[in-house]
Hints:
The chain is an all-alpha fold. It has one domain. Helix content is 47%, strand content 0%. The chain is built from 7 helices and no strands. The relative contact order is 0.19.
Amino acid sequence: xxxxxxxxxxxxxxxxxxxxxxxxxxxxxxxxxxxxxxxxxxxxxxxxxxxxxxxxxxxxxxxxxxxxxxxxxxxxxxxxxxxxxxxxxxxxxxxxxxxxxxxxxxxxxxxxxxxxxxxxxxxxxxxxxxxxxxx
Length: 135
C-alpha cells in the first residue's frame, strides 16, 4: 500500500479552501467552511486518496479529536482508520463533532459540496443505506 499523504493541519486546509474554491464555485459555502476543512483533513490523515484502498465515512470526521489529529505518526494514523469504525472505539480527547453531525458531513459537505464540484469521488457500488465508507 502506498504511503500516507504528507501531514497538513486542519487550519492550513481551512486557510487554503477559499483559494481552491474561488467565488463563483458551485456550492462554495459547503466547500470552504470549517466542516469541509475537517473532512478534507481527515481524508488526508487516513489516506483516503487515489491509489490507496481506503475510503472515508462521516464517522472518521466526527470521531476525530485534537489529540488524534496532532499524532502525525503513520502507525497512529493507520491505527485510527482501522479502529474508528468499531462502535466502542474512541480516540483520546474530545471529539470535534457529535454523532448527529454525520448528516451535514454526508449530505452538505460531501454530496452537495465536494462531490458535486468533483473534488471527491463517491463509490457507486455501495448501497446508500450501508455504513461502509464510500468517499
